[in-house]
Amino acid sequence: MNVISIDSPTEEKILWAERTFEKIGPILLKDKGIVRDLELFKEANKATWDKMKALGIPQICSECDKTGGSCCRKRIDRHYDAVMLLINKLLGVQLPHRALYQGACFFLGPTGCRLWAREVICINYLCEKITAKIPHNEIVSLQKIACKEMDVLFFLQERLKKLLLGFVP
Ligand code: SF4
Ligand code: SF4
């Protein structure tokens, strides 16, 4: 497998995730711990989105994007770990091969993020446009729910990294 690091270009991280999935995806998807963590992630991710929708956050972000202020219009993809992209492949996500918007995050699509599993920076970032509109107790409640998703992803990433060591030539 090619050596990949956090400093590698996004395109290389995507290729690494795709090649790794091609070579050992079926083996990884037979690992009981991985399968359980993927299911836990789906539940936790749904709970985060349900709470965000109940609070009207996607609408606030959508309005923000129309006025060009969205945080997804920055190159956040550069902070992505290749293993997070592999998790997306394990979830059945088709990773993009080109950025749609110049200067924006590589993963930004016409209807929002093209990833399912996202880094902490994308899960729990709430700017002032949101915190000014939503009561503090609801923000705290959302953060507790999002914490579960981040915890699950952390343990899944660590489990994958350990397993991947067994495949390094
Ligand atoms: S988090 Fe804030 S900056 Fe980012 S898209 Fe939503 S409203 Fe805009
Ligand atoms: S939410 Fe998705 S599109 Fe937005 S910055 Fe994060 S990875 Fe990029």
Structure report:
With 169 residues, this protein is mainly α. The chain has one domain (10-162). It contains seven helices and two strands, in the order ααααββααα. The protein has a two-stranded antiparallel sheet with strand order 1-2. Helix 1 crosses helix 4 (82-90) and helix 2 (32-54) packs antiparallel against helix 7. The N and C termini lie close together (7 Å). The mean pLDDT is 95. One iron/sulfur cluster is lined by residues 72, 76-77, 105, 107-108, 113, 115, 118, 122.
Could you give a short description of this structure?
With 169 residues, the chain is mostly helical. The chain is built from seven helices and two strands, in the order ααααββααα. The protein is globular, with a radius of gyration of 17 Å.
SSE diagram, text form:
Blueprint: H1 10-28, H2 32-54, H3 57-66, H4 82-90, E1 108-109, E2 112-113, H5 120-123, H6 128-131, H7 136-165
The chain binds iron/sulfur cluster (SF4) (2 copies).
Q: How many domains, as an integer?
A: 1
Helix share bin:
55-70%
- Note the total helix count: 7
Oligomer type: single chain
Strand ordering within the main sheet: 1-2
Distance between the termini: 7 Å
Features:
169 residues, two-stranded antiparallel ribbon, binds iron/sulfur cluster
